[in-house]
Write a structure and sequence with these properties.
This protein is an alpha+beta fold. The chain has a single domain, classed as Alpha-Beta Complex (Aldehyde Oxidoreductase, domain 3). Helices cover 23% and strands 36% of the residues. It contains three helices and ten strands; from the N terminus they run E-E-E-H-E-E-H-E-E-H-E-E-E. It has helices spanning 45-53, 90-105, 138-155; strands spanning 25-26, 29-30, 35-39, 63-70, 80-88, 110-123, 127-135, 158-165, 171-177, 182-183. Strands 3, 4, 5, 6, 7, 8, 9 and 10 form an eight-stranded mixed beta sheet that branches. The protein has a two-stranded antiparallel ribbon with strand order 1-2. Strand 8 (158-165) and strand 9 form a beta hairpin. The longest helix is centred in the last third of the chain and has 18 residues, at 138-155.
């Protein structure tokens, strides 16, 4: 898009949950549903923020908090991480992420909660999850942002295959769930 073109207005058509319809695209990216898993490269933070600003009660918001989870360069055992591969039970993950968001929106002063987890292959430093909370005040926003992160980490069936350089110098890989439990 060049500077003479204007961006399409997506604020008049916020997404409904995935089970009601598929989301439209914006500049080749998904206009996000409330929450869910997405293939890497199909969604970005700016489209999520546009969607948050388009919610009906956004005028009540005084703060937006964003958590961006990225790939760490060291494993919990201090091995060098080369890359991660993320997979999920997608339908179940979408349902649980949407339920977490709905539950947390019931908190006093919370205007919107969105959790978007990416799937695919990721290098060190790349973003793999976005959690966004809009609230009337920052205290509630920070508290709810933390709850959202803790809940998705403990409840959502997302699995990662970690590729590391082992102590012997060879590349090794293994699957873990979000609770960092190695899977055989």
């Amino acid at each position: 898009m060049n500077s003479s073109q204007s961006e399409p207005d997506v604020s008049e058509r916020p997404c409904q949950p995935l089970h009601e319809r598929e989301c439209p695209t914006y500049l080749g990216l998904e206009v996000p549903k409330i929450a869910g898993v997405h293939k890497k490269g199909t969604i970005d933070l700016s489209s999520i923020l546009r969607n948050v600003r388009a919610v009906q009660d956004f005028a009540d918001a005084g703060a937006i908090g964003v958590f961006v989870g990225v790939v760490r360069g060291k494993s919990r055992k201090k091995d060098e991480v080369l890359k991660l591969e993320l997979e999920a039970y997608e339908e179940q993950a979408d349902q649980i992420l949407n339920q977490i968001c709905k539950d947390l929106k019931k908190d006093d002063g919370i205007v919107d909660v969105q959790i978007h987890h990416l799937l695919g292959e990721f290098r060190v430093g790349e973003a793999l999850v976005y959690v966004v909370v809009a609230a009337s005040h920052r205290d509630g926003m920070f508290s709810t942002l933390r709850k959202a992160v803790e809940r998705y980490k403990s409840e959502v069936p997302i699995f990662k295959k970690e590729y590391i350089t082992g102590k012997n110098g060879h590349v090794e890989s293994y699957w873990e769930n979000e609770l960092n439990t190695r899977l055989q």
